[in-house]
Structure formats: structure tokens, C-alpha cells
Amino acid sequence: MNGNSVHQLLGAYLLGGLEPGEARTFEDHLGSCADCRRELEELASLPALLDAVPAADAVALTAAGAAPLAPLAMEPEPLPEKVLVDLAVRRRKSRRRWP
Amino acid sequence: MPLDEDVVAAIYRDHGTALKRFVVSCTSDTHQADDVVQETILKVWQHAPQITGSLRSYLFRTARNVIIDNYRKAQRRPHETGEYDLPDNAATERVDELLNRVLMEEALLRLSVEHREVLVALHYQRFTVVEAALQLNIPAGTVKSRAFYAVKALRTILDEMGVER
């Protein structure tokens, strides 16, 4: 394993994918690499943030056809008539505040 | 300088559907959801010049605040029952949970397919590197390096979206 790839274990380590032996190798490396320690600290909150998405939903996002920003591909929401009226009212109000 | 109508119409076109989906998941009332979406988009339009970063996540956050304001207003009305019978804190927590979820889904969708696949295999499917390599039909070394770049890319995306560490 070259010098670069031991740093790169950080991602799989953070996500819990390393076998115990390799996890220990990375932990030993952490002891001597301040860059990796800092980086791990910066990324440490990611697993908890990821847990906000249920696993089944996350898996579905990788299914074929789940293009990046798939929600955008859906039927666009039409602009309700009422919005334009409201918009005009708000614009008049903000003009009054800023003559 | 674009007309205000065009700006608002563009926000509806680009974000209306995603926003409405989030609002419906919070309020489970389609009619009220339309009002929340409208209020959110107009609020964001008013503050548009100060917005930096992701407009989508700013819209989600604003919708969250509109929904919670609505809960509070409803609770202050003494004789109204039914529609908003959740206690304030539980309702707020639920909306925040849904907000975090929708923001994270958004972030995952912004990753490249390769990064997303590896991240899902390791984190959500609890695969080891070797198992993920078999599943995705790529070398184990590739799983490791993609996992490395995936977590860094995700952090950058979340920073852009204003999701706190």
C-alpha cells in the first residue's frame, strides 16, 4: 500500500466499512498523521447526518434512473394566480418602507 | 434586471414541486400546503438579494419556519382543535426531522453516481469494503478511494447548503 492510500482509508473508516485489521492500521496511522486527525474531526458528524435518511430511501436513490436532482425532473409546479396578486401587494408595501 | 413576476415564476418552476413535497410531508394537508409553499416563495423572493449558497435549502428552511409559525399561531387560538393537535415541541421536532431528511436527500442526489453508490453501500447497507466491491463490481481499492472522495464531496455540498457540522 503506498503512502497515499493509507490516508484514503479515512472514508471507508468513517463509514464503518473497514475490516478490523485495516481499521487498526488506519487508527495507528491517525496517531502519527495530524492531517488525517483534523480531517476525520471535520467529517465526524457525517454518519449521524446521513442517518436522517432511512436506509431504504437512500438505497432507492442509487437505483437506475435516479438521476442527480431527480425531483427537478418532475412536473413543474404551476404559478398560482393568487401569487401574483400577493406579490404586487408586497411590492407596494416594500416601496412604502423604502421611498 | 428581471421582473419580480419572472423571478417568482422561476422559483416555482425550479423548486415548487420539491418544496411542495416537503411541505405535504410535514402538514399532510394539500390545500394548506399550497399556502405554505406560496408564503415561503414570496418570503424568499423578498430576501433574495441576501441569499448566498443553495436557494433550494434556503427555501426548505424558510418553509420549515412558516410551518412552525403556523403551528404556533394555531395553538394561540383557544377554541380551535383538530388540525394542529400536536404539542408544540413534538411538532417542531417532527418538522426538523423531515427538514434534515430532505436536506440530506438533496445532498446525496448532488453527489456523483459513483460516490453515491459507494456511500450507500458502506453506510446504509452496512457492507464492508470487500462486500461493496463485489456488489458494485469494482476493485476494493476503488471502493476505498471513492469512499474517501465521496465523504469530502458530501461535506463540501453540505457546507454549500448551509448544513451545520
Structure at a glance:
The complex is a heterodimer of chains A (99) and B (165). Chain A has 99 residues and is mainly alpha-helical.
How would you describe this structure to a colleague?
The complex is a heterodimer of chains A (99) and B (165). Chain A has six helices and no strands. Chain A has helices at residues 3-14, 20-32, 34-43, 46-50, 55-61, 81-97. In chain A, helix 1 (3-14) packs across helix 2. The radius of gyration of chain A is 24 Å and the shape is elongated. Chain B is built from seven helices and no strands. Chain B has 165 residues and is mainly α. Helix content of chain B is 78%, strand content 0%. The mean pLDDT of chain B is 87. At the A-B interface, helix 1, helix 4, helix 5 and helix 6 of A face helix 1, helix 2, helix 4, helix 5 and helix 6 of B.
Largest sheet composition of chain A: none
Radius of gyration of chain A: 24 Å
Fraction in helix of chain B = over 70%
Number of strands of chain A: 0
Topology record:
The complex is a heterodimer of chains A (99) and B (165).
Chain A: H1 3-14, H2 20-32, H3 34-43, H4 46-50, H5 55-61, H6 81-97
Helix pairs in contact in A: 1-2
Chain B: H1 4-27, H2 30-47, H3 55-76, H4 88-110, H5 113-124, H6 129-136, H7 140-161
Helix pairs in contact in B: 1-2, 1-3, 2-3, 3-4, 4-7, 5-6, 5-7, 6-7
Task: Considering the chains and any ligands shown, give keywords for the structure.
heterodimer, A: 99 residues, mainly alpha, 65% helix, elongated, B: 165 residues, 7 helices
